[in-house]
Amino acid sequence: MKDVDTSPLSEVVKAFDGKLTGSDRSILSVILNDPEQSVFLSATQLAEEAQVHASTVVRLAHKLGFQGYPELRDRLRTEVKPGVALSQRSQQRMVSIEQGSNLSALIESEIEALHALQKSISQTQINAAAERLANANTIHIVGRGGAAPLTVHLDRRLRRNGYTTNVALNMQRRDLAEKFMGLRKGDAVIFFAFQAPESLPAGYAGLIAHTARIGAHSILICDSTGLTARPRPDITLMVNRPDEGVMQLRTGPMVLCEALAMTLAHKNPERAVDGLEALEILRTNLLNDKD
């Protein structure tokens, strides 16, 4: 594992090779989805937020290589110090939200989600993922449950850009195996997972291993709990939001998918134009069909 004295907490979690319990994941979900608020929480308060015992917080800190929870929290404070003002504004907004309408609450929640996206994902990470997708013969997309809208949206955007896709949504292991018989070296597989490990697609571990064995690429789009997914994919694109688990909306991941598709189009504009032109020709032919 990387030195915890220098690594961001998210990288420490990603590099951890030991076992994480469901309680551990609940704690990490609270910390990583709202680090600016978490830095003010004691071990007892954090345990209450995660609905676990306070001793579990201390044990998790030790697991990750810290001397205790205070050291873990100090690490978090060094990472989020520039964003404390934003957290204060967030608290002020929440006070006004409680006095406002549901629509106002939704809008403010999504504003915070977009702020979190900007801090948790960089264009460099998106470029790295797009690089692996650009030369794939087929881009496979795997999702489950609440990831269905994202799966459908990304599939549509990629096909419009001229890419061949293969979608596996809510499939069990036997059907998933049949669906991926055509996976080849150089292909790419995109997984969606939120509130992992419960939301990971059935057969995730086996499919990650198969992808690596044949030389295909794996990309995981997830919330902070996805950092605990094992085996690790080649690339993890983690999007957190302060109210994850309460407002289980996917504005951040949807914007990420759009950014990924747009980056791909910019990398290969000829392919994107050809794809759109082919779509328009097909639409025209279908509309003109009198049968």
UniProtKB/TrEMBL annotation:
InterPro entries: Homeodomain-like_sf, HTH_RpiR, RpiR-like, SIS_dom, SIS_dom_sf, WH-like_DNA-bd_sf. One of its GO terms (molecular function) is DNA-binding transcription factor activity. One of its GO terms (biological process) is carbohydrate derivative metabolic process. It holds the Pfam family HTH_6. Residues 129-270 form the SIS domain. Residues 7-83 form the HTH rpiR-type domain. PANTHER family: GLUCOKINASE, RPIR-FAMILY TRANSCRIPTIONAL REGULATOR. This is MurR/RpiR family transcriptional regulator. The lineage of its organism: Bacteria, Pseudomonadati, Pseudomonadota, Alphaproteobacteria, Rhodobacterales.
